[in-house]
């Protein structure tokens, strides 16, 4: 009876190999996220592309927002993170009389993107505009002074 096979002998080895593969994959994902951008804090995929440009005295964020009006968009600046989100409802009506429509379709679209700014910005001077489906946000950098100041001691 010593030659009898033991069906569970390979399970522990299989689980260890599976655990190593999961750890390797997780490290790979972390590396890909770090390499993609340490500035992008968005979760999940979004159809909205965002660019961040350093123009010396200000950062310029541009985002593709085709079909969104300025009322459909929301911008929030919290410490060093800019959040750009949009929410719209589009209704397509078919037929002459909207009250007795034969077909009426609605679609909701939304997005939310977060981007970390590399430096502090002057919150009071931030400007944003939408033109031809392109959102442009201008974020002037906070001016830091290299001048020394005398401090009185009480």
Tag the structure with descriptive keywords:
154 residues; alpha+beta; Immunoglobulin-like; 4-stranded antiparallel beta sheet; Hsp20/alpha crystallin family protein; Small_HSP; HSP20-like_chaperone
Description:
Belongs to the small heat shock protein (HSP20) family. InterPro entries: A-crystallin/Hsp20_dom (IPR002068), HSP20-like_chaperone (IPR008978), Small_HSP (IPR031107). The chain has 154 residues and is α+β, with helices and mostly antiparallel strands. Helices cover 18% and strands 38% of the residues. Among the domains are: 12-38; 42-85 and 111-140, Immunoglobulin-like. The strands form two sheets. The protein has a four-stranded antiparallel beta sheet, with no helix packed on it. It has a three-stranded antiparallel beta sheet with strand order 3-4-5, with no helix packed on it. A hairpin with a 3-residue loop joins strand 1 and strand 2 (58-64). It is flat and about 85 Å long. The model has no long low-confidence stretch (mean pLDDT 78).
- The largest beta-sheet arranges its strands as 1-2-7-6
Number of discrete helical segments: 1
**Mind telling me which CATH architecture of the domain at 42-85 and 111-140 this is?**
Sandwich
Q: Radius of gyration in whole Å, from Cα?
A: 27 Å
Beta-strand fraction estimate: 35-45%
Helical proportion? 10-25%
Low-pLDDT segments = none
Label the overall shape.
flat
The helix/strand order is HEEEEEEE
Q: Looking at CATH, which topology of the domain at 42-85 and 111-140 would you report?
A: Immunoglobulin-like
Report the biggest beta sheet as strand number plus sense, adding barrel if it closes.
4 strands, antiparallel
Task: Tell me the structural class.
Answer: alpha+beta
Output the CATH class name of the domain at 42-85 and 111-140: Mainly Beta
Straight-line distance between termini: 93 Å
| Averaged pLDDT | 78
Task: Please provide the count of β strands.
Answer: 7
Pfam families: HSP20
Domain SHSP: 41-154
InterPro entries: A-crystallin/Hsp20_dom, HSP20-like_chaperone, Small_HSP
Organism: Natrinema halophilum
């Amino acid at each position: 009876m010593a030659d009898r096979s033991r069906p569970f002998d390979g399970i522990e080895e299989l689980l260890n190999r599976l655990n190593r593969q999961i750890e390797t994959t997780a490290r790979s994902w972390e590396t890909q996220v770090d390499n993609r951008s340490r500035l992008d804090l968005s979760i999940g995929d979004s159809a909205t592309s965002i660019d961040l440009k350093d123009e010396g005295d200000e950062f310029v964020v541009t985002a593709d927002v085709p079909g969104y009006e300025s009322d459909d968009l929301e911008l929030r600046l919290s410490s060093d993170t800019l959040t750009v989100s949009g929410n719209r409802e589009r209704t397509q009506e078919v037929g002459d009389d909207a009250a007795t429509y034969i077909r009426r379709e609605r679609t909701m679209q939304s997005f939310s993107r977060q981007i970390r700014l590399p430096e502090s910005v002057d919150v009071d001077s931030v400007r944003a505009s939408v033109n031809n489906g392109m959102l442009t946000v201008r974020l002037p950098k906070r001016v830091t002074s290299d001048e020394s100041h005398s401090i009185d001691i009480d």
